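Researcher: Next sequence.
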Amino acid sequence: MDVFEERISKRTQLAIGEKVFPGCVIGITRTNGEGIIFPFGTFIYESAEKKVDEDTVYDLASVTKSIPLASLTALYIKEGKLNLSDAVKKYIPELQNDFDATIEDLLLYRVQGSVLSKLPFKTFEELRTHVLETGFSAPPGKSAYTNLPAFLLGIVIERIGEASIAAQADKYFFSPLGMQNTTFFPAATLCAPTEIDGRGSVQGLPHDESAYLFAVKRRSVGHAGLFSTAPDLLLFLEALLTDKYSYIVDAAEKGLGWQVSDSNFMGTYAGPKTFGKTGFTGTSILCDKEKGLALVILSNRTYPKRPSNDEAIFSFRRDIADIVLGSA
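Model: Next structure:
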């Protein structure tokens, strides 16, 4: 084991010992195609029988907002089927209280409204109807991150593409790239569980409460619900590094549906155009074109119960990013 691997292993074993998560997978790829994957730990704390390996499937949570949602949006903008200045109402005419919000407002999270995870509804139809009838609480303003903009953008993308987000993502990205273990509807036994709550042990269905309502009926949404593995995500990020999807990179570096130069999880060495995304379950991705590096961290830090704050997972993300980007 070289010093680089030793530093990653030491920091990850420390996190497992501190119960930041029971297990995780760290993946790194470079522009030249060189990649390495480190699996650590187990699916759950209580048993060492189910060990994490590189093909363990994780709930990506809000990473879904970037892969595939923002990526599909960038594709349709490139093809002229969608414009940043288009009114949301153009594609969702039944949306009330739209305040003339645009596609750009959705991508930059400049609209506010219902907190989806706290809505009391028991079916996806009730939730969707409430969102469309309620709309936004105010005109577009300062960026403030919630699930609502991505949920609505997902509806827009489904109407433009005339297919589910799941089907479009598979058609344009996952199948062409050979991402065979990336899906909205995984086999539960392959997935690390995310939490034990009123739903029981959540495994193979989205941890996000609102996305869960859709997934149990085999429906995909834009704000959460994608499952994947480290090797699959590295295939996607390698495609970004090598300009296979330059239109996604262009949009991502502008923060359109992605986080940019966010030292809170990208660490000290992130550049002004380093982009990525975090997920509440303990997942994150980042891509640094200048350094020719991409990083994937997958974990189930919400198991068996979500922590009271995010300090531990963000500290871990920063430290791993510093090891990886600092070596470039």
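Model: The longest strand covers residues 35-44. The chain has two domains: 3-63+167-325, 69-162.
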